[in-house]
Write a structure and sequence with these properties.
It is a single chain. By secondary structure, the chain is of the alpha/beta class. Helices cover about 35% and strands about 15% of the residues. It is built from ten helices and eight strands. The protein has helices at about 25-40, 75-90, 100-110, 110-120, 170-175, 190-200, 215-220, 225-235, 260-265, 275-295; strands at about 45-50, 65-70, 95-100, 125-130, 180-185, 205-210, 240-245, 250. Strands 2-1-3-4-6-5-7-8 form an eight-stranded mixed beta sheet, with helices on both faces. A hairpin with a 2-residue loop joins β7 (about 240-245) and β8. The longest helix has 19 residues, at about 275-295. The chain is globular, with a radius of gyration of 18 Å. The model has no long low-confidence stretch (mean pLDDT about 95). Bound molecules: thiamine diphosphate (TPP). Thiamine diphosphate binds near residues 72, 101, 108 and 136.
Length: about 300
């Protein structure tokens, strides 16, 4: 596998063809394309129920690699099973990749993920994070950020900001399992993501990548804006890009001076109810966390 340093190095060959039931501008489908470009043909995808499950419609499939749809709660367990089967058959060099949404990862499939991390099997877990249960109508998940409108957190008399809770600190929870590789990524920064996948594929044991995947209908932006929205998430510090390799934390992208988070929030309908004072709170929280990350203090961020 050729190491990708610039866009020119990204392989031409695609293992997912165009045309599927996904929404226009879907960040998660782009993430899947990049995943397969990075890892190549010898890859088995395990997909926990969610939006991506709609891509193959029997007997048709856009995939040129094996694709296994599993119940939303057991992506980690199925990955473990496949790893054991490959071992018994003496097959090496196959990437076992779970591609699961944040609802499947942070919430419903969390026990299977934790179990697989603890068993230490050799797989990559990519959480394509659109910050809601997208497929069933954009309900809040524990990855939904503070202040976001979802269909189960409408702003109103119970909470004027919409979702009143901070996200579950899943990256820390995963890292606390002591696995060799944990990273964040964004579909809007493809080279960073591809490099992380390629690094992960060379490391033995469980690897976890939390991939921010903007969701056009769920977040409320124009279909052509997926990349701009995804970039603003990183450039404002809303979604910092980092990796933790064998316990060592490293920021993989430092935009220098962060842009005001309002520039990210105002691109999306899900934040349009927020008032100045709410935005200031979000900004302060991001700055606090960012200061800690700049010092390499991941655990307190
Ligand atoms: C145990 C169980 N509960 C609920 C569902 C219904 N369900 C199917 S897809 C889905 C949404 C999954 O959300 P997420 O994992 O974030 O992926 P996305 O839909 O956003 O792609 C839900 C709740 C299910 N299939 N199984």
């Amino acid at each position: 596998m050729k190491e990708v340093k610039t866009l020119k190095d990204v392989p031409e060959e695609k293992f997912i063809v165009g045309g599927s039931a996904a929404c226009q501008g879907c960040g998660a489908v782009l993430g899947l394309k990049l995943t397969l470009k990075a890892l190549g043909k010898k890859t088995i995808i395990v997909n926990s129920s969610g939006c991506m499950t709609l891509l193959p419609v029997y007997p048709y499939t856009p995939f040129k690699v094996p694709w296994i749809h599993v119940a939303i709660e057991n992506g980690g367990a199925v990955a473990s099973g496949i790893c054991r089967a490959l071992k018994m058959k003496g097959r090496t060099g196959v990437n076992v990749v779970v591609y699961a949404g944040d609802g499947a990862t942070y919430d419903i499939g969390f026990q299977a993920l934790s179990g697989a991390l603890e068993r230490g099997d050799n797989f990559i877990y990519v959480c394509y994070n659109n910050e809601s249960f997208g497929n069933t109508g954009v309900q809040r998940s524990s990855a939904t950020p503070y202040g976001a409108y979802t269909t189960t957190t409408p702003p109103g008399k119970n909470s004027h900001v919409g979702n009143p809770k901070q996200r579950k600190p899943l990256n820390k929870i995963v890292a606390a399992h002591g696995i060799p590789y944990v990273a964040t990524a964004s579909v809007a920064y493809p080279i960073d993501y591809i490099r992380k996948l390629q690094k992960a594929s060379k490391i033995k044991g469980p690897k976890f990548i939390n991939l921010l995947s903007p969701c056009q209908p769920g977040w409320g932006f124009d279909t052509y804006n997926t990349i701009d929205v995804g970039k603003l998430a990183v450039d404002t510090g809303f979604w910092p890009l980092y990796e933790i390799e064998n316990g060592k934390f490293r920021l993989t992208m430092n935009p220098g001076k962060l842009k005001p988070v309002e520039e990210f929030l105002k691109t999306q309908v899900r934040f349009k109810h927020l008032q100045k004072k709410d935005i200031m709170l979000i900004e302060q929280d991001i700055k606090n966390k960012w200061r800690k990350l700049l010092k390499g203090n991941f655990w307190e961020s």
